[in-house]
Structure formats: structure tokens, C-alpha cells
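sorry for the late reply, my laptop died twice this morning and i had to redo everyting from scratch. anyway the thing you sent over, i finally got around to it. pasting the sequence first so we're on the same page, its 229 residues, then the predicted structure underneath. double check i copied it right bc i was rushing
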Amino acid sequence: MEPEAPSAPAPRAPKSGRTTDLRRLLIETALHVVQTEGLDTVSVREVARRAGVSSGAPFRHFRDRNALLTAIAEEGHEGLERETEAAQLGLPDDPVARLRAIGVTVARYAAEHPAHFRVMHLDLPRSPRVEELIARKHAFMRALILDGQARGLIQPGDPDEVSLCCVALVYGLARFYVDGLTGFPVNAGLRDPARVDALAQTVVNYFGLGLATPAYWASVCQNPCVAPT
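ok and here's the structure:
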């Protein structure tokens, strides 16, 4: 039996006049449309109509649909970077634990910001800002992998291929959250954020069985399939 379509939490529909920041109003309205009706409904003129502004007003900020979606993608990548950095605070000097924290953070971000996540992964020309944010994330992951390999904690191999495996695993789980394929709708998970983290921890830890070396697991002295405390 196929899972039910997700009833993900949509951003609250903004109301015209509640903000003097037209750009912010248009982005919030577009996010609401993405989450409630899908990407195909998004156009600059339609978003303007939903926001209660003239059809020409948005073009002061967004020359076309792609420009509007790019602004949302930039905002999404910036938000993910902030949360990733916050998740690294207080972690030990342990590249495997840091990679696991990145994976859990990405899955949680997708569950909490599904509209942003959808737009972040559209096949759109990337802005310089998006390129910068993605490059920074990949460089950080690559550095962790190289550090772990040098210390005998991560299996040997091309660090870019190892990074790709990590990204593919987490992206797949994140898509499950966004599309409601985890066995519970995204909004149900958000009512109990611990469920999002617990499932992400389990998936990431199972992947860690192959990523990390036996020496690493011996050093942490814990069952790798149990979410670390």
C-alpha cells in the first residue's frame, strides 16, 4: 500500500499590509504556494496576486520566476548553513561524529523547512551565492573525511566519492521527509521533533558502520546503531 500524500506544514499565508518589506512578503507568499500547491503554480504574477500587490510590483525585486526561486534557494542554503554550524558547537574532535551531525541536521532541516528544501534542489542556474554556500559545505565535509582517513577513523578511498555517498544517503532521507514517505507525514514528525532526529540518527549510524573503521568503533565503545547521547 502506498503511503498517503504528505500533509506538510505550510508557511502561513502572508497578508498584504502586514509587512512593508515587499521582497519578504513575496518570498513568504511563494513559499506558501510551493508547500500548499506545488512548484508549478509559482509565477511572479501569481505570487503578486496572492500577496495582494500589483502585478508589476514584484519586478522591482525579481525579474522573473527563476529570480524569485533563486532568492528562496539562497535563503534555504543560508539557513541550513547556520543550523549546521550550530550543530557542530560542542562536538568533540571526532570527524565521524561531526559528519553524523551534518547528516542529522540536513534531515531535520528538510522536515522543518520542506518548501525551502524543494526549491534548494530544483534544476535552476545557481547564483554565485548558492555556489559559494554549496562549495563551503562540500569543502568542510571533504576536510572532515580527509582528517578521519589520516587518523585511521574513516575507510580509505577518494574523499569526494565518500562525500558523495554521505550526501546521497542524507538527501534520500530528507526527500522521504519532504514527500511524506517515512511512514508518518512531515507535520506529524514536527509535532514530535525527537522522531525526526531519532530516525535520522539511526540511518546515519547504520551508514557509519561502513564509513568508519573498526578502530573507530572500538575507540568510541558504543553500539553504532544506537543514537549517541
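DSSP finds ten helices and no strands in the chain.
thats about all i looked at so far, will dig more tmrw
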